[in-house]
Specification:
about 120 residues; alpha+beta; two-stranded antiparallel ribbon; 4 helices
Amino acid sequence: MAMQAAKRANIRLPPEVNRILYIRNLPYKITAEEMYDIFGKYGPIRQIRTGNTPESRGTAYVVYEDIFDAKNACDHLSGFNVCNRYLVVLYYNANRVRRSMYDLFYQGLGKVSYHC
């Protein structure tokens, strides 16, 4: 409800805020359903990509439908404890992400999960 009020008030968000979150320090055996349970509480999700190679395990990208939902999730889930691992939740930034990590996900090596 508070996020709806912010949308109507035309709140300006910091430039780093976007719909894509980069998640680190995930448990290696986390399932897509668990990811949707955790991140879906903050709004509709368009896509989740989890790493499944040795270099990308424990990481994921979560794409929200709405930028305000992504901000809310980032604010609330940074430091959230999942199976004794504290999540690191960052806004996706193409300039900061290692090129090889980006390639692992977006050239077909990352596991894609869609929520229908």
